[in-house]
Amino acid sequence: MKKAMLETGIILKEFKKGKIRDIYDLDDRLLIVTTDRVSAFDVVMRQGIPDKGIVLNQLSDFWFRFIEEKGIIKNHLISTELPRGIIGVVFYDGKPFRICQEIGQKQKENLAQRIMIVKKTKVIPVEFIVRGYLAGSAWEKHKRGDWWLKKVRPNLKEGERLPFLLIQHTTKAEIGHDKDLDLRELYQVLERYFGTKEYIASRAETIMGKSFEIYKVASEYAEARGIIIADTKFEFGIDIEGNLLLVDELLTPDSSRFWLKEKWQPGKQQEGYDKQPLRDWLESTGWDKNPPPPDLPEEIIKLLAERYQEIRDRLILKTKKAEA
Ligand SMILES: Nc1ncnc2c1ncn2[C@@H]1O[C@H](COP(=O)(O)OP(=O)(O)OP(=O)(O)O)[C@@H](O)[C@H]1O
Ligand SMILES: [Mg+2]
């Protein structure tokens, strides 16, 4: 099996090391490198998924351009060209693969497929989740019955298309799990973030409106290619000029729940073309969701690698071929 890229060691100032991305500081810009790391239940696994980072980067790149072309909202992406003269160490499976002044051609090609140069922004510390179908934690809440949706639509089944789009706002927890924010709490976070009480409601409304629009056009596009976007998460930031931008990643299998339309059958858990098989396998091991996580078997790694690629092929590659 191909090796996964788990670490990058580029000789640039580190901005942040996320669970999946290594981010370097280029003053008013950032260099984001998407590794092959995979997380579940907020814990990063010890093994990576070969080429997952490449798939995520290609999908975000595609969707950022797509949403911008639709005129909905601008985003942080400046370029996907690897800056010249990158110096560093590239690690595969934890072992330094090569150490040299300027990284070799092969590593450069690999790196080039996983990077983005973006505008540095102040990220709004909220994740905006849009749901078109009832799944995951929303289904869990509905099943338990302690949720408003149960009162208005008591008979909804797992995986069913929702009668209206839902938006949910959660914290972006630095440590531990994200928590739901109600509208009042969302306003408080935005007030703190913008440092003013002025227009907070209308800013929140703008962000939520944009989130719905993105979901609508993206899911229409995906459905035409046999993919259901059951739900997805967006992040927004403000650039130095004060513009609201879509940031982070966009409509990838890490930030969304994807189902194949031909296999969709409400009333049970759907087969997910995202991290779902990993979550299911982890649940089956009885792991308590605290680090260290169990080692992933090869079949799971292979299955995930295939699913990530399948979704990418269906969403972008096959279309490009069809249009060519
Ligand atoms: N344009 C941007 N400006 C500043 N920060 C950004 C920008 N785009 C993305 N980020 C931040 O970079 C990080 C991406 O890294 P990654 O996806 O690996 O992290 P994560 O584990 O999801 O991070 P976190 O735990 O902070 O949510 C996120 O914290 C995201 O908010
Ligand atoms: Mg992230």
UniProtKB/TrEMBL annotation:
Protein family (similarity comment): Belongs to the SAICAR synthetase family.
User: Hey, which pathway is this one from?
Assistant: Purine metabolism; IMP biosynthesis via de novo pathway; 5-amino-1-(5-phospho-D-ribosyl)imidazole-4-carboxamide from 5-amino-1-(5-phospho-D-ribosyl)imidazole-4-carboxylate: step 1/2
| BP-aspect Gene Ontology terms | 'de novo' IMP biosynthetic process
- Protein EC: 6.3.2.6
SAICAR synthetase/ADE2 N-terminal domain ranges (all copies): 15-292
Broad EC category: ligase
Q: Which domain of life is it from?
A: Bacteria
Q: Which reaction does it catalyse?
A: 5-amino-1-(5-phospho-D-ribosyl)imidazole-4-carboxylate + L-aspartate + ATP = (2S)-2-[5-amino-1-(5-phospho-beta-D-ribosyl)imidazole-4-carboxamido]succinate + ADP + phosphate + 2 H(+)
Gene3D superfamilies membership: ATP-grasp fold, B domain, Phosphorylase Kinase, domain 1
What is a single molecular function from GO for this protein? phosphoribosylaminoimidazolesuccinocarboxamide synthase activity
Supply the CDD domains for this chain: SAICAR_synt_Sc
Q: What are the alphabetically sorted keywords of the record?
A: ATP-binding, Ligase, Nucleotide-binding, Purine biosynthesis
Q: Name one Pfam family in it.
A: SAICAR_synt
Gene Ontology CC terms: cytoplasm
User: What is this protein's name?
Assistant: Phosphoribosylaminoimidazole-succinocarboxamide synthase
The record's annotation in HAMAP family points to:
SAICAR_synth
